[in-house]
Structures are given as structure tokens and as C-alpha cells.
Fold this sequence. Notes:
Layout: E1 7-9, E2 20-24, E3 30-32, E4 46-51, E5 55-61, E6 64-65, E7 81-83, E8 95-97, E9 106-112, E10 118-126, E11 133-139, E12 144-151, E13 157-161, E14 174-178, E15 181-190, E16 194-202, E17 207-215, E18 225-231, E19 234-241, E20 249-253, E21 264-267, E22 273-278, E23 283-290, E24 298-304, H1 311-352, H2 361-368
Parallel strand pairs: 2-10
Antiparallel strand pairs: 1-2, 3-8, 4-5, 4-9, 5-6, 7-8, 9-10, 11-12, 12-15, 13-16, 14-15, 16-17, 18-19, 19-22, 20-23, 21-22, 23-24
Amino acid sequence: MELLPLVCLCLLSCSGDARVRVVVEQDSDAVLPCSPNPKVDLTGQVFDWKKDGQKEVFFYDSGIHSNKGHTGQDKQFWERVEHFQDQLKNGDASIKINNTKMADNGIYSCIFPRLQSQTFDIELVVGAAPEPYIKILAETKHWRLLQCEAHGDPLPTVEWKDSDNNTLPAEKPHISERGGRSYVTVKITVTKTDNYSCVATQETLSHQVAANTSVLLAGAASEPSVTIVRTDEGKVLQCKVLGASPKPKVEWKDSSGNVLPVKDLKETESGDIVLQAAVTKTDNFRCVVFQEGSDSPLSAQIHADVPGLSAAVIAAIVVPSLLFVGSVVAGVLAVLYLKNRIKQIRTTDEEKREPQTEPNSSTSLRESS
């Protein structure tokens, strides 16, 4: 597989006003980009690559070049430099230097003598640190001794980090020489199940690379990792616990301590537990991990919002509404009662005011005689 430059600064087309900086690992291949401005077909043109203004790197003249008929190439670059023949028509005069060495560091000039002597400078930096190497030196069921080794020029600084990107305290770095290269080694003892990273940084090259490893310790469940997953059915709470032994019990609980129904529970090949539960209301939820032999459970909390009105909002709306309806009903009943009472009083008054029947005069006279 062809290795390309790890870093290439200057994203615009090459020009005399900006210098491209290519940073690669030692022993890898480096592509040095170059095109005239404006771009023209270079098949019948001349372009010349030199290092530090002196050494002949690659020369091309209408099909004759350093790898075909042209002499004068510096021995440092014999059989190590290629051009891109099929890209010449597109104005591409780039070259590739294979199997780069520290001696290849320097300033490379791409010159077009027949195109107004346009010249473009590219800086090649060889020595970027490759991915660090992690090794397990010793282990028990309660701890593991890890070692990280890195090299590069300049020698990188090395740090150990956990899954939360926290820098961990480690032993003092050890520097050694081997095969003409300098190596930095850093050891660390970890006591919990987690994913760990060894990060190598070369600040002067703006280069950083890391290697990762997973540590599974018996009897040491890690703090759960919680997130919200969106599915076609809505939001789902997901809790992941890195593998531990004995196997822990995992539950989702709401803010009232109620255990949520399990939507999905699975265990990965590495022993990780993934528990999912559906979100049915806006609330704070906790993923709780219980493990045999542990003094207290581990937990992680997350807040989830459900579209619509929350219980508090519904209560704030419904309760006043019920009170309002109750007062209206009470008022109507009171009015009906008053109307009925007034009607009864009026009926009684009318009965009292009704005139009595006059006595018959003939009857009265008859009784008096």
C-alpha cells in the first residue's frame, strides 16, 4: 500500500509566496507537489527539482528525465525518485521520494526555466513519529502494567490517557538508543477496566499520533457510559458497561427510582454490556451498575426531553382549569338555587294576599231572625 505524506501544509496551489511543508515518517514515501501558474501541459516542457539549491533530485525535458536518458542526478536520489507521467498533461510536475531518510530533510525547489523561470519551494521534514507500540508487561486480576514505546525525530513526548481523555500519572519516561534511533518508553499501572490511549506528540511538527488498548480487569466494573440513541420509534436510553467479572447487573431508573422496562439487552464478544430503555417522559435518568462484592453501585446520569408537555406543565394547566370549571359550576348552581327560592317566596306572598269570600246577606238575616 502506497504511503502518502502525513502532513502537507499550504492547501493553495504552490507559488513563490507560500512554501509547502510536507511531514512524513522515516522510511515512508513523500510526495512533493508542484504545478506552474497557470497550469499548462508539461509533456513537452522542462522542469528541474533541486535540493537545497545544489543537489540534482530530478530533471525532466520533453520525455527525457533522470530515470530515462538524463544523467546528473545526485547519488542520494538514485532509483528513489518518480514523477507522475500521466499527470503531466494536467500541469502536474510533482515527484515522489521513496523510502525517505533523515538525510532527505531540507528545502526542495521546483523550477520551470521556460515558463518565466517560475520557482516553487517545498520543505520536506522526515521524522514524524509512527503509531506508538503498547505492550503488557505484567498483570493480575486487579491491575495491569502497560508499556508504551515511541520514536521519531524530534523525539516525541508520550502521555497515557483514559477514555475520558484525562492524562494519567505514569512513570518517568525512559530514553534509549537502538538501531541508530532514539526511543522513549513510558510505563503505567492501571487498576480499573477502561480504554486507554498512548499519545505521542511532536509539537514542532504539529504532529500527534496515538495507539489504543482495552483493559478488562476481573471484579472491576467501569463507570457506565450513557447516551441517547434516536430510532424510528423515538429516543432510546443506552448504557454501556465495559466487561467485568463477575457479570454485573445493569438497570435504568428514573428520578423517582423506578426501574424502566428493558427494551434491549446484549453482551458483546469482549464482555461489554449494552442496555437500552425507551424514553417515555422528560426526566433525569440513571444507569445503575450493581456488582457482587462491590460496596456501592456505580451510576451515570443523563437528562432526556420528550416532545410535548411535561408532567409539571400539564399539572400547571390542568389544575387551574379544574378549579375554574368547579367555580363556574358552583356559580350556576347558586343562581338556580336563588331563582327557585325567590319563586317560592313570591308564591307564598300571593297566597297571603288572596281576598276572602263575602258572607251571603239573606243567610245572615235569616240567622238573625
